[in-house]
Specification:
Elements lengths: L6 E5 L4 H12 L3 E6 L2 H11 L2 E4 L5 H11 L4 E4 L14 H29 L3 E6 L12 H21 L4 E8 L5 H7 L2 H9 L9 H12 L10 E4 L7
Parallel strand pairs: 1-2, 1-4, 2-3, 4-5, 5-6, 6-7
Helix pairs in contact: 1-8, 3-4, 4-5
Length: about 240
């Protein structure tokens, strides 16, 4: 997987899967643009891999559009940024639902629109990976807004694949099980909650960010040149049972 000569935009690059992905792509030769909400996180990443940084609140649609236009051209896009709020279904607030959908589904759509328009103008092929979740297809208690947003992201991925494939733009998603990131710790730190989930994973553990990053890099690479419109499970066998 050699990404020399390609510009990659990674959202949510300050922490977790996004950071691991930015580091891996840079190590494989890509010129990385790291996008996120917290400048300190992005600056520490830039100090390590020499990437460009873009600070933006992904809940702000116009700010997202302006930010991505400012860093074009982009050849490879990884929509990794996401938020989660833990609320039982009966207590899920409209504000929580709207913000989660804005960050987890609307922002990836806007980013991909701008990147794809530019790729088409340039007559260049490219690749997009949307980082979804097993929660797109598995109902997870206290995650109403999150599950809905990830199901929406997988649906957006399929539509993008149908419409952009003729332009040489490949689009896929990865759908990992719980991954050991700061966001996951917020939701799964209670052994009473994590224990039953771990018991259903044949490999017996949650995923590590670098494992998901490796799957993302594969889907971006020429090694996956005929992989298009799929949602790749990275779940340790959870879905096999």
């Amino acid at each position: 997987m050699d990404f020399a000569g390609r510009r990659a935009l990674v959202t949510g690059a300050g922490k977790g899967i996004g950071r691991a992905t930015a580091e891996l792509l840079a190590a494989r030769g890509a010129t990385v643009v790291a996008m996120g909400r917290t400048r300190a996180d992005l600056d520490s990443l830039a100090a390590g891999i020499g990437c460009a940084v873009s600070v933006v609140d992904l809940a702000d649609a116009e700010a997202v559009r302006d930010a991505v236009r400012a860093v074009l051209p982009i050849d490879l896009l990884v929509n990794c940024a996401g938020i989660v709020e833990i609320e039982p279904f009966l207590d899920t607030m409209a504000e929580t639902f709207d913000r989660t959908m804005a960050v987890n589904a609307r922002a990836p759509m806007i980013l991909a629109q701008e990147v794809a328009r530019d790729l088409i103008r340039r007559g260049a092929g490219g690749a997009v990976v949307n980082v979804s979740s097993l929660a797109a297809t598995v109902g997870t208690p206290d995650h109403t807004a999150y599950c809905a947003s990830k199901a929406a992201l997988d649906a957006i991925t399929r539509v993008m694949a149908r419409e952009l494939g003729r332009h040489g733009i490949r689009v896929n998603s990865v759908d990992p099980i719980v991954t050991l990131t700061p966001m996951a710790e917020k939701a799964w730190s209670d052994p009473a909650k994590s224990g039953p989930m771990l018991a259903r994973i044949p490999l017996g553990r949650f995923a590590r960010p670098e494992e998901v990053a490796a799957a993302i890099a594969f889907l971006l690479s020429d090694a996956a040149s005929m992989v298009h419109g799929t949602s790749l499970l990275v779940d340790g066998g959870f879905s096999a049972g």
